Amino acid sequence: MPAFLNIKKIWRIFWKNVEIRYKRELKNNSQLKF
């Protein structure tokens, strides 16, 4: 079970990084509007 919790933690950190990168890309590319 500890291995599962570890994977969950890594997954959360990974998605946080993806979200930050995505927001940064949106700032850089102002032509991309949703």
Secondary-structure blueprint:
Elements: H1 2-28
Quick summary of this structure?
This protein is mostly helical and 34 residues long. It contains one helix and no strands.
- The CA-CA distance between the termini, in Å, is 41 Å
Helix content: over 70%
Rounded to the nearest angstrom, the radius of gyration is: 14 Å
Strand content: under 5%
| Unreliable sequence segments | none
Structural class: mainly alpha
| Total number of beta strands | 0
Major sheet summary line: none
Overall geometry: rod-shaped
Compressed to H and E, one letter per element, the order equals H
Work out the count of structural domains: 1
Quickly count the helices: 1
Average pLDDT metric: 85
Question: How would you describe this structure to a colleague?
Answer:
With 34 residues, the protein is mostly helical. It has one domain. 79% of the residues lie in helices and 0% in strands. It contains one helix and no strands. It has one helix spanning 2-28. The model has no long low-confidence stretch (mean pLDDT 85).
